[in-house]
Specification:
The structure holds two protein chains of two kinds. Chain A is mainly α. Chain A is built from 17 helices and two strands. Chain B folds into two domains: 226 residues, P-loop containing nucleotide triphosphate hydrolases (Rossmann fold), CATH 3.40.50; 126 residues, Beta Barrel (OB fold (Dihydrolipoamide Acetyltransferase, E2P)), CATH 2.40.50. Chain B has a six-stranded mixed beta sheet with strand order 6-7-8-3-9-10, sandwiched between helices. A six-stranded antiparallel beta sheet of chain B has the order 13-12-11-14-20-21. A five-stranded antiparallel beta sheet of chain B has the order 15-19-16-17-18, with no helix packed on it. Classes of the chains: A mainly alpha, B alpha+beta.
């Protein structure tokens, strides 16, 4: 150890590093840190693993104690989630059995005979997933478009009371959702927006707009005004300059902002629970209400949650580089 | 090509008087430098000519046409920015064709125009790259190409070489000069670098504290500065300026037994402007000094800078506690140890006198002797 200060490291240093970081001691601390981070990451992922496993377990495996880690995977949970089923009448069972003996039984009929249940159509969850897609998608689009123009104005023009306005926009985020739910509920009922797609889109757009304006302003601030001035001198109008110069350069910021808006709108639970009942109900509250009918369908709930995670995971994975810039308000240079 | 005329053009930002009323006529094909320290209003002036900044009052004429309130794109001028402002998401070709596409020009014609400018600037090989891949000099060439391709009636350049390293700056300076020589387009060039201004301009507009200090050819602002600011600002180091007192045909320097004879062509104007015993500021360039033992000015060598071709001596005419430093150019082989005494005189033809009360130069009675010596300025 003390040798290090006399003789230096055993291997030549071939990276950019401060001298005190080369010592064996700080190298050890460095790897220790990495181990802690990995352990923490695994610990945080445990619920996700359990959820993923539960989604593929049979009813009996789900409730077995101690929980099974090795089991035969089944898609039962997903079937329960996406379909509406009915118990087969005794008369139909005999018919199916006869068909089975003669050997001309289809795949679905075979399953029906085995489980004693028959698929009668898609479940409500399918429409709710569709609602989630529409509401989250449209509100994200609106937040980003409106946010972009607001952010551009704040960034480039002398808006009177700019700082106060920016603070006011941010302050809409300071109230917890619970506080405004009741007034919103009453307002929405009066306006006929309760349980409508437009109502939910409006709500999520308004909520996301503050984030979108703040994030996008950071990104637009980074684009030098000279680009637009050059375009102005070169014979373009301001709108043309925005479209041809600012927009392409703000693309990373727009992508990051869109991801954040999408995650919020996609995951939102409290407002959706209060302000929708059937037509515009989104997926998150409907997963929770699945607890009810005829015992707790744990595997269906897990399957629903898992399926619900996947779109966000894909989007985040595709745009992960921009996300880092998003959380630092564009301060990280790529 | 065009003339540019500023009539009482003025700019006020809130409480800040950025450009005081300014009159300037730029002739067709002329290369004008706006030169001054940062914050003197030179960039604001340029931006007002381009229309990127609205004037507070005054009129801007382009070829006699009043463009004061015209949109920037409606002025037929090209602007070259300090940091080039090349659109990073477009290729070099798209960058250069960008202004032409605004006019809705046909593809074939755009290709012809691009072909012309890339020939002039020798950048064929860069067309397919994005600006981020190019070196600073090449980015500047592309920015020039984008300005040139429009065939505008005037070029405005805002410190276009400011971001380049010294060696490249010299190369690009020569290129811009050659370009101007070939195109002969009216150009307004903003810089804080006096070497650049001296090297490039037909005329220099020296600005300071929001005001025009002097408009003149490089030789005029160098040899005949209109006031103390220009005398100090132009040249590196600037003109030596020593406080003296007028005593008939002699200038005496308080606290020093040095004297200087008033040159013949300054006798009448000095006596007209000042009384006997009045303070006067004597100015001379470092290269106007001649070191010899029988001279009338005495000082002590304070420091010696070796510049390669010559030595620059810092000579103290005052005392150790109250120094008056002048810079003299000496032979590169001459030995002047620090602390040694030294006598020198200044070439009477290169002496200038300033009234310390107004800061203005006192003009000689007849035209000053013509300078044949080339201007030597070193960074």
């Amino acid at each position: 150890m003390s040798d290090f200060y006399e003789t230096g490291p055993s291997k030549p240093v071939t990276e950019s590093i401060r001298v005190d970081k080369v010592s064996p001691r700080s190298r050890r601390i460095h790897s220790l840190r990495a181990i802690v981070v990995i352990a923490l990451a695994i610990f945080l992922l445990i619920p996700i693993f359990i959820m993923a496993m539960t989604a593929f377990k049979t009813r009996s495996d789900v409730v077995s104690s101690p929980p099974k880690t090795v089991f035969e995977p089944t898609l039962e949970g997903f079937v329960f989630l996406f379909t509406e089923r009915a118990i087969i009448t005794p008369g139909r069972i005999t018919k199916l059995q006869e068909a089975a003996e003669s050997g001309d039984l289809g795949l679905f009929d075979r399953i029906a005979l085995k489980s004693g249940q028959e698929i009668t159509g898609p479940s409500d969850y399918v429409t709710r997933l569709k609602n989630s897609l529409i509401i989250a998608g449209v509100s994200t689009l609106l937040s980003v478009i409106l946010g972009f123009f607001a952010a551009y104005a704040f960034s480039r023009f002398n808006v009177p009371g700019k700082d106060d306005l920016m603070f006011f926009i941010l302050s809409t985020r300071m109230l917890p959702a619970v506080v405004v739910t009741i007034p919103l509920f009453l307002m929405y009922r009066q306006l006929g927006l309760h349980d409508t797609h437009i109502g939910m889109i409006l709500l999520y757009t308004v909520f996301n707009l503050s984030l979108a304006v703040w994030l996008l302003k950071g990104f637009i601030d980074e684009i030098p005004t000279e680009y637009e001035e050059a375009a102005l001198v070169d014979g373009y109008t301001r709108m043309q300059a925005i479209r041809k110069i600012v927009l392409p350069q703000a693309m990373t910021g727009i992508a990051a902002t869109a991801v954040f808006c999408l995650i919020f709108a996609w995951n939102e639970y409290a407002f959706a629970l209060m302000l929708t009942s059937n037509t515009a109900r989104t997926a998150p509250p409907s997963i929770a209400t699945m607890l009810g009918r005829g015992g707790i369908e744990w595997s269906a709930i897990a399957a629903g949650s898992l399926g619900f995670l996947i779109p966000v995971v894909i989007v985040v994975f595709l745009l992960r580089d921009y996300l880092l810039r998003g959380v630092t308000f564009g301060a990280v240079r790529k | 090509m065009a003339t540019i005329e500023l009539r009482d053009v003025e700019k006020i930002f809130g409480d800040n008087h950025a450009v005081k009323p300014m009159n300037l006529t730029i002739k067709d094909g002329e290369f004008i430098c706006l030169l001054g320290p940062s914050g003197c209003g030179k960039t604001t002036t340029l931006r007002m000519i381009s229309g990127l900044e609205a004037v507070t009052s005054g009129t801007i004429l382009l070829d006699g046409r009043n463009v004061t309130w015209r949109h920037p794109s409606d002025r037929d001028i090209a602007f070259v920015f300090q940091l080039y402002a090349l659109y990073p998401h477009m290729t070099v070709r798209d960058n250069i064709s960008f202004p032409l596409r605004a006019e809705g020009m046909k593809r074939e014609e755009i290709d012809i125009r691009i072909g012309e400018v890339v020939d002039i600037l020798r950048i064929h090989h860069l067309l397919k790259y994005k600006p981020g891949k190019l070196s600073g000099g090449d980015q500047q060439r592309v920015a020039l190409a984008r300005a040139l391709v429009r065939r505008p009636s005037a070029f405005l350049m805002d410190e276009p070489l400011g971001a380049l390293d010294a060696e490249l700056r010299e190369t690009m300076r020569a290129e811009i000069k050659a370009l101007h020589h070939a195109q002969n387009a009216t150009t307004v060039y903003v810089t804080h670098d006096q070497i650049e201004a001296m090297a490039l301009s037909d005329r220099i507009v020296v600005m300071s504290a929001a005001e025009v200090q002097q408009v003149g050819t490089p030789a005029e602002v160098y040899y005949e500065p209109a006031n103390l600011f220009v005398a100090r600002f132009i040249g590196s180091p600037g003109m030596n300026l020593i406080d003296g007192q007028l005593d008939g045909d002699l200038i005496r320097f308080p606290g020093n037994d040095s004297t200087m004879a008033v040159p013949a062509h300054f006798r009448v104007p000095l006596l007209a402007a000042l009384d006997k015993g009045d303070d006067v500021v004597v100015g001379f360039r470092p290269e106007a000094a001649a070191i010899s033992d029988d001279s009338t000015m005495a000082g002590e060598v304070y420091a010696v800078d070796m510049h390669g071709g010559y030595k620059l001596l810092h000579v103290n005419l005052g005392t150790a506690t109250d120094p008056v430093i002048v810079h003299l150019r000496a032979d590169r082989l001459a030995s002047h140890p620090m602390g040694s005494s030294l006598r020198f005189t200044a070439d009477p033809a290169m002496l200038r006198f300033f009234d310390p009360k107004t800061g203005r130069a006192i003009s000689p009675s007849e035209t000053a002797p013509v300078q044949t010596q080339p201007v030597e300025v070193t960074a």
